[in-house]
Design brief:
The radius of gyration is 19 Å and the shape is globular. A hairpin with a 2-residue loop joins strand 6 and strand 7. It is mainly β and 237 residues long. Helices cover 5% and strands 51% of the residues.
Length: 237
């Protein structure tokens, strides 16, 4: 793993990224790992005056290991990070990264990473290009040709019905990942139908936390169709 960070801007924002390079044959995980695995967990030194605001995730893939379906990466991946300085500017960024790596067995791996926070004029053009390339791998926002038309959770909370607008008129069923409460991801489709750029499917919702109340909650959805991916939220009123 490698931590990359540019100098803070005038408002104290820091562009950074965590690079993870699994050895050939090994995988690491998305923000929800699927049926097994360990999602990345990142923390900044608590006394540093820096807060980690957002971890952005590149588009993952479904990886089948025996009968287990996992969600992650089987190639090097770079995760962009948004950080913010809350006080005086520190001399360095210290970050602890805890990830899962899996081949025949799954191994938790932790590393302590540190980079100096240089003056803006000293930021490496190579590092800026690396961060720009990482941003380009992130899912796009909804648009006129790629969006969620409608969503509805069944009365028994066992199925989520979706209607989508897809960017292409033909192709296989898109991959859909719905993340609900922390630790829960749903991706098994039923009744999938593609009609031109319109797509409908039901997503099987597994067991939710006991006494979970869906009203007022917001889940996330990632849709991967061919070379494009779109991520947005689903609000339940």
């Amino acid at each position: 793993m490698r931590l990359v960070a540019l100098a803070p801007d005038a408002q104290g924002h820091i562009r950074a990224a965590l690079q993870i390079e699994p050895a050939p044959g090994w995988i690491t995980y998305w923000r929800e790992a699927g049926e097994s695995g360990i999602p990345p967990q990142l923390s900044v030194a608590p006394d540093s005056g820096i807060t980690l605001q957002t971890i952005h995730f590149s588009v993952p893939k479904t990886i089948t290991v025996g009968t287990i379906h996992e969600i992650g990466y089987d190639a090097p991946v770079t995760l962009p990070l948004d950080l913010k300085i809350s006080g005086s500017r520190p001399a360095k960024l210290d970050l602890t990264a805890f990830i899962g790596l899996c081949k025949d067995i799954c191994i938790p791996f932790q590393a302590e990473l540190s980079v100096p926070l240089t003056d803006a004029g000293q930021s490496s053009t190579h590092e800026q290009a690396l961060l720009d390339a990482a941003d380009a791998t992130l899912p796009e926002a909804p648009s006129g040709d790629f969006s969620i038309q409608d969503h509805a959770l069944s009365a028994d909370a066992k199925s989520l019905s979706l209607r989508l607008t897809l960017p292409e008129a033909t192709g296989e069923a898109p991959m859909i990942y719905v993340t609900g409460p922390s630790g829960y991801v749903f991706f098994k489709q039923a009744n999938a139908k593609r009609d031109g750029k319109n797509f409908a499917a039901d997503i099987a919702i597994g067991k939710l936390p006991k006494d979970y109340e869906i009203k007022g909650k917001t889940w996330s959805i990632l849709v991967v169709d061919g070379e494009r991916a779109m991520e947005t939220t689903l609000a339940f009123e």
